[in-house]
Amino acid sequence: MALASLVTGTGNLVSSDATVRVVRYYGAADITVYTRKQAIKVWEWVALTQACADGAVDTSSQADLPAGAVAVYSASEDNRVVGSYRLTKTINYAQVLTTDTEEYPA
Q1: pLDDT for 21-51, tens place per residue?
Q2: Domain count, the chain
Q3: 54: left (phi over 0), alpha (psi -120 to 50) or beta
Q4: Is residue 89 assigned to a domain?
Q5: Does residue 6 form part of some domain?
Q6: Residue 29 sits in which domain range?
Q7: What is the maximum alpha-carbon separation in the chain?
Q8: Is 61 inside a domain boundary?
Q9: How many Cα atoms occupy the beta-carbon half-sphere of 44 within 13 Å?
Q10: 52 vs 77: CA distance, rounded Å
Q11: pLDDT band at 100, cuts 50/70/90?
Q12: What does 7-66 look like in DSSP terms, one character per residue?
C-alpha cells in the first residue's frame, strides 16, 4: 500500500468528548440554573507521507467550522519502518451556555 501524498475527506473520527457543568444560583425567590456544555472531536488521517502531513499542518485552516470553534492540527510519526505519518485535527467547539429558572418547592 502506497502512502498518501494528499489529505482527502474528513478523516476518521477517533474520539468525541462532551463536558457538561451545571451551576445553581439560589436567589431570594427562585433558583437559576446555568448549564455549560463543551464538545471536542478528534479526527485523524493515517498512512501519509511526511511532506503531506507536515504540509497540512502548515496550511491548517479554520474554514468550514461553526462559529466559535477552533481547530488544532498536529503531525506525528505513525510507523517508522514504513515511514508513514499521521495528521490529527482536534476541534474545540464553542461552549454553549443555557439558563433556566426553577421555583422553590412549596
Answers
A1: 999 999 888 999 999 999 999 999 999 999 9
A2: 1
A3: alpha
A4: yes
A5: no
A6: 12-98
A7: 70
A8: yes
A9: 12
A10: 12
A11: very high
A12: --SS-EEEEEEEEEEEEEEE-SSEEEEEEEEEEEEEEEEEEE-HHHHHHHHHT---TTPP
